[in-house]
């Protein structure tokens, strides 16, 4: 039962799991609204999709490999590689800023989930832009459509080798990961199914503009038997057959449950959700609304129990306090230190989760990050290069490594005044910390005393709680 969980805590739980936390404006706007009303509003806010246009034919050679290959000398080749590196970084920054400062948190949060589910890397940032836009576009749509789009994506076709999958010499990499990681999960197919799927997927590639291209002359037209069905199957048939399996709905629902609710799964509940997802023809929005509107979603056992990933931590801080980094590479640096850099997963299985994010080095950096940001502290390993608006690399004075940024504590201050300054420490803890804080009662009282004596102001009070281990959980 959710008895004892305040409405504010439920709102914050919803915004953290379906977004990157609630800022004070969102919290105040939601106080008098029911949870179903807030859920509907989140979907309305995320309805519009605007693709990234970080790279286009005017500012980047879309056929990068050809441009490098035909460059007249090594200096030009190196310049193109540097340009690709810069644009990768810029696309990363554009996305983290959309998560932290843009509209539609729910779409970006789900895009982050699918980005990890379909883990992929390509050295050509234009191909990654195409893939990220596809994922963001379909993040709240139909899983079958999303699966087809990613399966035909040029970056994925290269990453898992299907662009080289031709009749007579089948490449099984993509077929294996399609079944193991993207749809059915280990144990629900055979090696023969992988081999037959690979044959069916022969001929799938892309053209010189990184658009999907089916090459019939490279396709194996012989009959294949896949998951018990026999026919002259092609790649579309393989995806259709996979989606016909209820195990696919169960596998995806379980992974979504881990991401949104809890690593500890209630089997009957999961089975009911998976059946609903399957019967809805893989309607992602329908499944999400069912989860986020359920009373059990707001039970105490599910609140403050999830370790924030580095992206969730960074985007959450940006969103809550409207952080705008003047040196855009700072956000990239934080990702690298904490071990999760957008568009650069460690392997095809994606990033870890939960306590796997934490070690001695990353925990120390996590706990000190709020002070680095809001107390204008120094991160000594901040790189001395940054990107200008024109995409050129500029050299900073290496002695000046403070983080140049702007942020907004005014709305937070107004919230504390509205709720009563005599309870500022308690209200700050309630707003920033999702886990139960009963064990912090004495600590909160001491901080309230310091606040009353003028030893702490609203900003330093917030930084105190942001620097606690409890802030790492949502």
Structural write-up:
There is one protein chain. With 474 residues, the chain is mainly alpha-helical. Among the domains are: 142-244, no CATH class; 310-406, no CATH class; 423-472. 53% of the residues lie in helices and 5% in strands. It is built from 22 helices and eight strands. It has helices at residues 7-17, 24-30, 35-45, 64-70, 74-101, 105-117, 125-138, 143-151, 154-159, 173-183, 191-200, 235-244, 246-260, 267-279, 284-292, 310-321, 329-338, 360-374, 410-419, 424-432, 441-452, 458-466, and strands at 204-206, 212-214, 224-226, 229-231, 324-325, 385-387, 393-395, 405-406. The strands form four sheets. A two-stranded antiparallel sheet has the order 1-2. Strands 3-4 form a two-stranded antiparallel sheet. A two-stranded antiparallel ribbon has the order 5-8. A hairpin with a 2-residue loop joins β3 and β4. α5 runs parallel beside α7 and α20 (424-432) crosses α21 (441-452). The protein starts with 6 loop residues before the first helix and ends in an 8-residue tail after the last helix.
Class per helix and strand makeup: mainly alpha
Poorly predicted runs are: 377-400
Number of helices: 22
Beta strand count: 8
Mean pLDDT: 92
Radius of gyration: 24 Å
Distance between the termini: 19 Å
Topology order in helix (H) and strand (E) letters: HHHHHHHHHHHEEEEHHHHHEHHEEEHHHH
Helix content: 40-55%
Give the DSSP E fraction (strand runs of 2 or more residues).
Answer: under 5%
